[in-house]
Every structure is written in structure tokens, then in C-alpha cells.
Design brief:
The protein is an alpha/beta fold. Helix content is about 40%, strand content about 20%. The protein binds nicotinamide-adenine-dinucleotide.
């Protein structure tokens, strides 16, 4: 990353991306972008607002009714697959952008770019394989269902996985023929802005993919309330999720919400601990815990408590945070606000007398101005405590003991969230029973996949949101069904 040192000049804002072209935001304002590992400004993005959103929605509408809308599914798929290939061709460049913008370790940023490419490959390939059905009806009738795009879809993504979120929300929307307007997160969106250029290079017609960077209360608020938007896809905080759903209701449209979680990893006495340990720890450390599906609660059967916790303590104590180039276990948190939020959870834990079992460290040489926090392991955490119930969104793992299978299920289901879960046992019948009773959109058995699996339907219940992204399920959510009834006799 020697071309991206903190001495390098600040990268100028490109503008808003509408009709395959950069144009200045109408406000003329820009937003400073900080490198979290450096605590310093290294780039600027345009501060898009309501007028830019309106222009983007109009461009998308023209595309939907024009060149983009006329393409066959095969041709849409080809364009998306081509974009996937272009992302792969630029993997080194994009990895550096993503790493600096978010402070992820380089190898994780690299994996994220590959995942982004994979979204376009998967949904590019799926575009012409998703179709309706015929329905046997009365004599003299032919009935068929058809999956139609919503039209213009609005997308809001967070800062934790800019590249992956870009692929996750846009690839299925485009594959099904929607024209899209994306408002990425102001804290980290340089990779999406670069990939937009690659999309134009791949040959996406003007207006199919528009991006308006800006702050949530301006560009975001304008997008979710715009009457020209036919569907909304949102990933972020539960608080903003409520606003998205409220605005969607006012315009009589639907939305998918992906809002985070407090996901449990349930460890029974018969766990294969050597196999489980890397996943138990990585599930909370990956992306510095800033992952909606982070495994932030470690539920351990009392019989195995000492053995499991001792092994986790040993591993936790070795964890190190550092810059992307150091490529350690985790990077910095995204901004000072997020760092303060995590530290306030830790201060509250101390006030509540919750034992700090272990903590990692920040590497020597990591910039003092970076937003680093050492990962922390707490336990036993009382079930009613905020550390057992609320999303920290940082590298903080809460250990909670349980008595038996029934208690494990009750504890796992004891928060307002329900996104994913892990079950660790060698008893296949028990694993299946627990997997079926845990309230979550995805349950892993003897594995844990925070963030992975483009093919696997993903989403939550209750405070984790609703709707499914990833896999063929996403194609359902990004379309509406029409039933055509023909009387032919
Ligand atoms: P946020 O919900 O405020 O931001 C997410 C996205 O929503 C961003 O693009 C933002 O600009 C946009 N947004 C903000 N206000 C908006 C509004 N009024 N109208 C429309 N869009 C708006 O999340 P945050 O402040 O960046 O993070 C706060 C907390 O949210 C975190 O601590 C974490 O708990 C949670 N979070 C969850 C995820 C996830 O993947 N589920 C991602 C990021 C944050």
C-alpha cells in the first residue's frame, strides 16, 4: 500500500453516479472520509441530497422503461457475469481501497472483493433460470405465473462490508430486471463507487445502476421516501430500519430489512472443541465484530463450561488488532462514535461486576490515532444484562452458561433478535432438534459462517429484520408475482 500512505494527497470526490456518468452533487458539498486505522482524512465523497436522488430515480425509471428493461434475461445475466469478471480483474486495486476505507486486514478485504465478484457471477448465472409456473385450473383455462421486477429499487447499505453489501443487494435486483439507486454509507463507500465505473465498463445501460453517496438523513431519507421508488432494500441499524419500513408503508411498497443480531453459538458438552475453537472466536473477531451475523453470545453447557472457557481464554489472549498491512486478527473500528459505543458497553460491564475473562491487544506500531479496541471476553454474563441482549457491534464476546437442551434453546431465543445461530454437538439428533427450534434465519451445525455463503438464503426475524437476501430466495424478494389467466375455450 505504498501508494496510499497518509502523506498521499486527499482523493477528490468523484460526484454522484447517474446514467453511467459522474456529476457533481447539487449541494456542491463534500464529506471527508477517514481511514479508521489512521484516524485521518484520506478521501472525500460527494454529499448527495434530495435533488440528486430524484435525478437518479428518474434515470432508473428511464432505464427500466428503456434499454435495460428491454434486455432479455440471458443478456442481463451476461452483463452481470462480465461485471463479476471485471471485479476479479481489479481484485488487487479494490482490495486496497476496501482495506483502507474500512481498516480490514488485507486478507479479509481480499476475501470480500472475491465475494462481491461471486454475487455478480451467481446472480448473473441465475438471471435466466428463475421463472414462474403453470397452474392446473378449470377446463378451458391456461394459467401461468410470471415473476416481474418491481421496477425501480432503492438500496441503502452500511459501512461494515461495502463491497459485499454492494453485490448482495444489487446483483439480485439487477438480475431480475430492476433498475437501481444505491445510497451507500458515508463512512465507507469508495469500493462501491469504483465498482460503479466497472459496471459501466461491463456495458450496463445508462440508468440501470445509479449511486448517490451522501449522509443518511439527507440522501438516505430522500431515497426511502421517494414516491418513484417501487421497493426498498435496507441493511443497517434497527432504528433506521423502522424509518425505512414507515416510509415504505406511506408509499405502499414493500422492503427487506437486515438489521443485525445477537447471534448465539450453542456449545454442548460433547463438542469437538479443537474443531470448534477457531469458529467460536473468529465469529466475533471477524471485521472487529462489526458484522450483523457476528457470533456475539457463546452459550456453553455447564458441564463443559470450564473446559470450553479455558480454551477460548487462551485463544482470545493472543488476538491482535492492527492496520490492514499488518494483516492481523482484526482492524480498527469504523469511527470514533463506534469506538465510544463499544467502550461504553465495556465500562457498563465493569460497573455491573461482570468478570473480564481475557482480552487481546493492539499491535505495537498501530497508529495512536486509529480507532482500535482490544477484543474482550466477558463471562459469565447474566441473561438479563445488556451484554447478553444488545448488539455491541464490536469485538466483545459474552459467555453465558446453560443447563440442558431446553435451557439452551430458551437462552438462544432470549433476545429481540433472530439472525443466525451455531450449534456445536456430535449428537446429530440433538443438533437437528435445536436447529429447528432456534429462532433465526440461518442455523449452522458444527460450523459458523458470519458473512459467508452467497448461495444461502440469509435474513432474520423480529429485530433482525425480514425478507431474504442471497441465494435464489433473493430473486423472489426482488420480484413480484403476476398470475395470467387465459380462457381459451
Ligand atoms: P445506520 O443504520 O445509521 O446506517 C446504515 C445506513 O443507513 C447508512 O447508509 C446510513 O447513511 C443510512 N441512514 C442513516 N440514517 C438514515 C435515514 N434517516 N434515512 C435513510 N437512511 C439512513 O447505522 P450506523 O449509524 O452506521 O451504525 C449504528 C449501528 O447500526 C451499529 O452500531 C450497529 O449496531 C448497526 N449496524 C448494523 C449493520 C448490519 O449489517 N446489520 C451495519 C451497520 C450498522
Amino acid at each position: 500500500m505504498n501508494d496510499k500512505t497518509s502523506q498521499a494527497p486527499v482523493q477528490k470526490a468523484k460526484g454522484v453516479f447517474i446514467d453511467n456518468q459522474w456529476r457533481p452533487a447539487k449541494s456542491g458539498r463534500v464529506i471527508d472520509v477517514y481511514a479508521p486505522a489512521e484516524g485521518a482524512v484520506f478521501a472525500q465523497i460527494a454529499a448527495g441530497g434530495a435533488e440528486d436522488i430524484d435525478a437518479a430515480v428518474q434515470a432508473a425509471r428511464r432505464a427500466h422503461e428503456g434499454a435495460w428493461g428491454r434486455l432479455t434475461a440471458v443478456d442481463r445475466g451476461r452483463l452481470l457475469s462480465k461485471l463479476g469478471q471485471l471485479i476479479l480483474d481489479h481484485v488487487d486495486e479494490l482490495t486496497l481501497i476496501e482495506a483502507r476505507d474500512t481498516s480490514k486486514p488485507l486478507r479479509q478485504a481480499h476475501a470480500d472483493i472475491l465475494a462481491c465478484a461471486r454475487y455478480f457471477e451467481f446472480f448473473g448465472g441465475a438471471a435466466d433460470k428463475f421463472h414462474g409456473e403453470t397452474i392446473p385450473f378449470m377446463n378451458g383455462y391456461f394459467v401461468a405465473t410470471e415473476r416481474e421486477p418491481h421496477g425501480v429499487t432503492g438500496h441503502i447499505i452500511p459501512w461494515n462490508y461495502p463491497a459485499q453489501m454492494f453485490g448482495r443487494t444489487l446483483a439480485p435486483a439487477l438480475a431480475t430486471g430492476n433498475a437501481t439507486v444505491l445510497k451507500p454509507a458515508e463512512d465507507a463507500c469508495l469500493t462501491p463507487l469504483r465498482i460503479a465505473e466497472l459496471a459501466a465498463e461491463a456495458g450496463l445501460p445508462e440508468g440501470a445502476l445509479n449511486i448517490v453517496p451522501g449522509i443518511g438523513s439527507e440522501a438516505g431519507a430522500a431515497l426511502i421516501s421517494h414516491p418513484g421508488v417501487d421497493f426498498l432494500s435496507f441493511t443497517g441499524s434497527p432504528e433506521v430500519g423502522v424509518m425505512v419500513q414507515t416510509e415504505a408503508a406511506k408509499n405502499h411498497i414493500t422492503c427487506t430489512l437486515e438489521l443485525g443480531g445477537k447471534s448465539p453459538q450453542i456449545v454442548f458438552d460433547d463438542v469437538d472443541l479443537d474443531a470448534a475453537l477457531p469458529s467460536l472466536v473468529n465469529a466475533i473477531v471477524q471485521n472487529a465484530g462489526q458484522t450483523c451475523s457476528a457470533g456475539s453470545r457463546l452459550l456453553v453447557e455447564k458441564k463443559a463450561y470450564d473446559r470450553v472457557v479455558e480454551a477460548v481464554i487462551a485463544r482470545f489472549s493472543t488476538l491482535k488488532a492492527g492496520t490492514p498491512e499488518m494483516d492481523l486478527d482484526l482492524g480498527a473500528l469504523i469511527n470514533p462514535r463506534q469506538k465510544k459505543r463499544v467502550e461504553s458497553f465495556c465500562a457498563r460491564a465493569a460497573d455491573d461486576g461482570i468478570p473480564l475473562l481475557a482480552q487481546g491487544s493492539v499491535a505495537d506500531g498501530a497508529p495512536q490515532a486509529g480507532y482500535f479496541v482490544a477484543p474482550k471476553l466477558y463471562g459469565p454474563v447474566p441473561r438479563a444484562n445488556t451484554l447478553a441482549r444488545d448488539e455491541v457491534f464490536g469485538p466483545v464476546l459474552s459467555v453465558i452458561p446453560f443447563d440442558d437442551e431446553a435451557d439452551a434453546i430458551a437462552t438462544a431465543n432470549g433476545t429481540d433478535f433472530g439472525l443466525i445461530a451455531g450449534v456445536w454437538t456430535q449428537d446429530a439428533k440433538r443438533a437437528t432438534r435445536v436447529a429447528r427450534k432456534v429462532r433465526a434465519g440461518q442455523v449452522y451445525v458444527n460450523a459458523y459462517g458470519a458473512g459467508g455463503g452467497i448461495e444461502l438464503p440469509f435474513g432474520g426475524v423480529r429485530k433482525s429484520g425480514h425478507g431474504r437476501e442471497k441465494g435464489f430466495a433473493a430473486l423472489h424478494d426482488f420480484t413480484t408475482m403476476k398470475t395470467i389467466i387465459v380462457k381459451h375455450d
